[in-house]
Amino acid sequence: MIAEDDKLSELVSAIEEVSSAPADFWQVTAIIESLGYTDRVIQQEFGFSDALSLGKYVYENHNFSLAAKVIKPKKKFWRNLLKEMQIFIEQFSQSFVFALPLLLILLLESLDVDNQSPLLPPELASLITLATMASLTISGGFVQMISRRGEFYLKLGEPIQARRVCLPIIYLGTATSIIVGLLGLWFGFYQGQFADEYLILAAVYYLVLSLLWMLLAAVGIQLRWCTPIIMLGLSGLFVLLRVWINLDALTAQIISMFATLLVVICLVGFGFGKDKKASQTTATKVPLPRLSALVYLLAPYFFYGIAYFSFIFGDRIVAGWAVNPASGLVFAIHADYQQAMDLALINFLLLVPFVEYLSYRFISYWFKNSKNLNVTKLAKFYRQLSYRYWLTVGLTVIFFSLCVTITFLLLKPESWSLQTNLQSLFGCLGYLFFVIGLLNSILLFSLNQAAMVVKSIIPALVLNLTLGYILANLINPDCAVIGLVTAAILFMLRSTHKVSQVMKQPDYIYYLAGY
């Protein structure tokens, strides 16, 4: 009997090497037969009449999933761990690198490096701030369209189609940025509140940044690891010019941006040029979808991209326009408010890549388990999804709390007043609520529910700008942060409700997503 048990254990081990979790006893029987066991051998060694009876016995009396965990080799565990770390680094780095420039600027300020050079005139400083926010807002919609549509074709193995779609979007985005820049110049010349050379410099700064954001999106879909490397290079060049060569912050930024723009243009030209040569050798061209279809598909992403950055900078915009006319400025943000919100923005930028990784794991779990879903398992699967969702939200809050603690200890100046500290904490709270809404948006986008995202963020953006503008003008410009917090709560609640709705019907939503 002991010999038969040993032989049976050896057989089970051999079966698990082929499949650690067989679907049914038929699969176990097929594996036994593929291992060369005939009915005669089975009768002699195990005492069963045939392979089918042995397969039923092994399947019903052996816990394959438990055994797979027990005999799983350590190499497989470390391989899975390394793979998970690679996924985390890839997901995290794609967004984290965009926090580096602002993080470096705040770090240099905390080290008193800025005292080595004269400060910018208030008029130019306000124009540069406005140009930066405008570049991100105007180009945000085009960046979303480039990323979504280009990645769609590249994952289908159609780089030529990606080029044919992305280049017109880049041209359209560039033309739009130029028109907006010219209108801004005309308005500035008409008002006569700023020196002409300041207006021209701000317009060039805005155009360079707008083009840079769109081209980085095009590079990111072709060469995924190029974007982090480029942003690291940009940050390193800025530090070199700022610390070692001792240039002022604006000059160092402009030189770094122009150098980065030239590199990105070359990379985009190389990538799309390679695809163009391939397209010339192709006998037939696959027609693109009609323009009306592209507009229908990409419109939600375009409006989301604009609303996303408008929401982030909405409080600063209304606070800047609420400046006292006696100061002689049309737009200006108080230095204390700017620093407080910069520190809050750093925590937001650190949290975004972490949330993108968590959303990736959540959607991967959803799609993986939806493949074997049936009606009897729907209720249980909904509870599992709800548990994982709230666990993801909890991890987001914990990580954000750690980030706020670390940044306040390392980057917050000791000279800040109680009011500035409260403003920064309110800004952090608003960005936390906004990030939870962003988590919901990523999940809804992954499920092909883009319209739900737009319906959630647009009302919140309107509330942000309206309430912030009223409070900034009636009470104090610093009260614009209240509009940010209130609107972020609205966005979080509406998007959470949408996610809860789709989780209640996971099979139908999985079908609509087209997977």
UniProtKB/TrEMBL annotation:
Organism from which the protein derives: Calothrix parietina FACHB-288
Source species, domain of life: Bacteria
UniProt signal peptide: none
Segments crossing the lipid bilayer: 87-108, 124-144, 165-186, 198-218, 225-245, 251-272, 293-313, 344-367, 387-411, 423-447, 467-493
Keywords: Membrane, Transmembrane, Transmembrane helix
Protein name: Uncharacterized protein
